[in-house]
Design goal:
Helix content: 25-40%
CATH architecture: Sandwich
Radius of gyration: 18 Å
Distance between the termini: 56 Å
Number of strands: 12
Order of helices and strands: HHEHEEHHEHEEHEEEEEHHE
């Protein structure tokens, strides 16, 4: 029996999903995957990070001691598990509509010594949000560690996906005069291996200072509604053999290139304002 997106979405409470994403701007699924699956994900991230650091332009800085690496999906053993996870399908369908597209997979690595990032959103709010008051993209995050307070947890200011970018540098970085507002709302997230979250990348957030001696890698899966254009910032690629073996239901939700041989990814989503950390 083929399990359709509509069938999966029906197993979850659409109102709760929409209320969380449109309200706080972030929702979570505890123990979405077994720890063993998450440990394999971490192994793949570690291997790919070493490769990326050795290749010119393979890793993009997101602040001191912070990096982002976009990857080829087939280099992660659990990609199909993730992209077809019932909760991922349900959240994408509820928020982005039945024609949603997966446009990105990569990971962030805040290492020891990473400092507080400035409060920010990951890209400017599109007209769909500013005018239409609609969210047309999502970011799913999966931790590669059991997060502790000293690792520089992710911090988010709920409800701020709707903030108008008045005085924002590059329409992404709010003025310091607003920091008190974000700090008053701030929630620190301490996920464990196997946990997954979904958020609007427009909700104001930051990575905090990593005082530990451990890295805190986080996998990122990005999805768009049919009218969004975040795919232009990324380069999702599959080899022909891998792509043809994917489930048809998944292929319908991919914005990608099919190539004979995987090509190095030229990162198109650098965020210059993060490079110095919080002033």
């Amino acid at each position: 029996m083929t399990v359709t997106s509509a069938g999966i979405a029906a197993a979850y409470d659409t109102a709760a999903i929409m209320g969380g994403i449109y309200g706080d701007g972030i929702i979570g699924h505890k123990a979405a995957f077994p720890r063993e699956w998450a440990e394999r994900m971490r192994e793949d991230i570690d291997e790919l990070f070493v490769e990326a650091l050795a290749r010119p332009g393979g890793a993009v800085g997101r602040g001191p001691k912070r990096y982002y690496v976009e990857i080829h999906p087939e280099r992660m053993r659990g990609f199909v598990d993730l992209a077809t996870h019932p909760w991922v399908v349900a959240v994408c369908t509820a928020v982005l509509g039945p024609d949603y597209k997966i446009v990105e997979i990569g990971f962030d690595v805040p290492g020891p010594g990473a400092v507080n990032q400035p409060w920010h959103r990951d890209f400017p709010s599109p007209p769909a949000t500013l005018v239409g008051r609609r969210l047309n993209s999502l970011a799913f995050n999966l931790t590669g560690v059991d997060t502790t307070e000293d690792m520089g947890p992710f911090e988010i200011a709920p409800g701020t996906q709707w903030d108008l970018p008045e005085g924002f540098e590059h329409e992404m970085f709010p003025p310091k005069a607003l920091y008190e507002r974000y700090e008053a709302r701030a929630q620190r997230k301490l996920p464990s291996l196997g946990d997954m979250s979904a958020r609007s990348a427009l909700t104001i957030h930051r990575g905090t200072a990593n005082h530990s001696q451990k890295s805190r890698p986080v996998l990122v899966l990005g999805a768009d509604s049919s009218d969004a254009n975040n795919a232009e910032r990324h380069d999702l690629q599959f080899t022909r053999a891998y792509y043809e073996a994917l489930p048809d239901e998944l292929k319908a939700h991919l914005t990608c290139r099919v190539v004979e041989t995987l090509e190095p990814i030229v990162q198109g989503h650098s965020i210059e304002g993060l490079m110095m950390g919080e002033a």
